[in-house]
Amino acid sequence: MGDEPVMATNDDASECKRGAVQLGYWEDKYISFFVKQIVKKAPEINRGYFARVRGVETLVQKFLSKSGSCAQIINFGCGFDTLYWKLKDEGLQISNYIDVDFPTVTARKCYMIKRNKQLLDKIHGEDGEVRLSSTDMHAGNYHCIGADMRNLHQLETKLSQAEINFSKPTLFIAECVLVYIENDCVNRLLSWISSKFQSAMFINYEMCNMNDTFGDVMLGNLKARGCNLAGISCCKNLETQKLRYLNNGWLGSNAWDMVQVYHDLSETERHRIEKIEFLDEQELLVQLFQHYCISIGWLTPEFADVNCSGGF
């Protein structure tokens, strides 16, 4: 079965996001260009995606506030994520943005960008040139590249084609990506980043606290769909999430389960989204939040305080 079930998780996540956006959990003018189908999900799933999107984007903003316009962003396992266009709308200047995923996924993303004027207009550089292959796109400061993260030689070659600069502050984002990759490969990737980049931060969103009955059910559901959770041992708890960075040459790390992330979001925003749908089972939401987390790692001291101390 190979990587196909993992690639299919992109479609599921994108449909969930489109459904939550449609209900008003957050604004995303671009998700509808990538996802036509709207699937109705349970309220706790929608709140989970809301906390995930808000948590990650808040940390992205904090990184950019420290790095300024010379920042680079590399979005691993990007799927149909629309972060580049949202940052553009907010007027945030970055020097380079690179979406990375399996070539099969990036081929679809490039095709959708090419055929939607609203997406294409946002990525044009000063010269207006868009360079396209069947799986890759290069336009202005936006790049979408097909690469297997387990193959570091291929990844480095593709990043070079996307004009990566190893001396500029770089943010890596991975959402439910590393858990599908063998630990040895993840360790090599994190070690490669820490040795190649002068200044970097990594944001990782995925499972944690998986050693209980609720975790077993989650794992069973994913395995039933053919998803091989090769990196699940690092999702044991928050400590194993943090150690992964420290064991591979990173200066520091931190991690929070989604219960904490959700409660660190502004009270106004929480009250707003809690009115969208009635949630009968509060306990189920808490259980769900306890089994996902956001972890960060940093290579240089200036990113050490980019965490939830100031609130998500």
How is the secondary structure organized here?
Blueprint: H1 4-23, H2 31-34, H3 43-67, E1 72-76, H4 83-89, E2 96-101, H5 103-115, H6 117-123, E3 130-132, E4 137-139, E5 142-146, H7 152-161, E6 170-175, H8 183-196, E7 200-207, H9 213-224, H10 238-246, E8 252-257, H11 258-264, H12 267-274, H13 282-290, E9 292-298
Helix pairs in contact: 1-3, 3-13, 5-6
Protein name: Leucine carboxyl methyltransferase 1
Keywords: Methyltransferase, S-adenosyl-L-methionine, Transferase
Pfam families: LCM
Shape: globular
CATH class call: Alpha Beta
Strand order of the largest sheet: 3-4-5-2-1-6-7-9-8
**Average pLDDT:** 93
Largest sheet: number of strands, sense, barrel closure: 9 strands, mixed
Q: Which series of helices and strands comes N to C?
A: HHHEHEHHEEEHEHEHHEHHHE
Q: Tell me the distance between the termini.
A: 39 Å
As for the CATH topology, it is Rossmann fold
List the total number of helices: 13
Give the beta-strand count: 9
Rg, rounded, reads: 18 Å
Low-pLDDT runs of 5+ residues are: none
Helix content: 40-55%
Number of spatially distinct domains: 1
